Amino acid sequence: MAITNVTEGADTFTANVFLVEGARNVLVDAGAMAGVEDRVAEHVDDLDAVVLTHQHGDHVAELDAVLDAFDADLLAYGDHPRRTEAIDDGDTVEIGDESFEVVHTPGHADDHVSLVSETTIFSGDVVVHDDGAFDDGSFGRTDMAGQSREELIESIQRILDRLPDGVERMYAGHGGEFHGDVRSVIERALERAERREPKYPDE
After folding, report:
1. pLDDT less than 70: residues of the chain
2. Whole-angstrom Cα distance, residue 20 to residue 96?
3. Residue 173 DSSP SS3
4. What is the pLDDT of residues 105-128, one digit of tens each?
5. What is the largest CA-CA distance in the chain?
6. Is the distance from CB of 105 to CB of 172 less than 8 angstroms?
7. Which of 167, 151, 177 lies closest to 7 in space, CA to CA?
8. Residue 203: its pLDDT value, please?
9. Is the full-model pTM beyond 0.85?
10. What span, in angstroms and rounded, lies between the C-alpha atoms of 52 and 55?
11. Helical segments of the chain, H only
12. Which pLDDT does position 200 carry in this prediction?
C-alpha cells in the first residue's frame, strides 16, 4: 500500500493530503493547494473515493476540483452537498489495501474522524507528530469558536483505547509523517493536552 503526501512542498497553507494507492485508490482530505488534482493524476488514473477527516477550509478548499477531475465518491461524517456516503463512529472504510475503523474524534472540529487500521492511522488534526508547538506528540488547537479541549482530550483517549498494537505509521493533517511507536506519540500528545495550558502563546 503506497501512501504519498501530494501537497508536500506546497507554497500555500494547506493540510497534508494523502493519496493511498492499492485495491481502492483513496484520497484522505483534499487540501487547499491549487492543482492538487494534477498531483494526484501523476500517480493514478482513477480515484475511487475521497475520505474527509473534517471540513475545515485547509482540508477541503480544493475538494470540488478533485471530485470534478475524478468523479470519485465522497465519504464524510458531516453533511456536505457532494457527500455520497455518510460515515459514522465504528464504521469500516476500505482505503488502499486495508480496512480502517472510523473513530469519531471531535474537539478540534465537531465532524472530525480519525481512521485506524491494523498498521496505520490517519489522525487528521486531533493528534500530530510535530507542528511547531510540540515535537514527537502534539494535538489540535482548541481555542477557536466551536472547539473544546475537553472533547479533544476524550477523543485522544478514544483513539488510544481503539488503537491496535501493530500500528506503526501515523499520517496527520499537519507536520511530518511518523513511522515507529505511534502509541507513545499519541500518549505524549494526550499528556500535553491534559495540562490544559494554551497550545500557542497567543491563545
Report:
1. 202-203
2. 5
3. coil
4. 999 999 999 999 999 999 999 999
5. 46
6. no
7. 177
8. 56
9. yes
10. 7
11. 36-41, 57-60, 63-70, 149-161, 182-193
12. 81
Count CB neighbours of 196 within 10 A: 10
Torsion 189-190-194-198 (CA) sign: positive
Residue 94, SS3 per DSSP: strand
Q: Is 181 helix (H, G, I), strand (E, B) or coil?
A: coil
Closest CA to 19 of 32, 35, 30: 30
CA dihedral over 53, 58, 61, 64, signed as positive or negative: negative
* Cβ pair 137, 129 in contact under 8 A: yes
pLDDT at 201: 73
Q: Which three cell numbers stand for residue 36?
A: 492538487
Query: How many Cα atoms occupy the beta-carbon half-sphere of 43 within 13 Å?
Result: 19
Mean pLDDT, the chain, rounded, equals: 97
Q: How far apart are CA 59 and CA 15, in angstroms?
A: 5
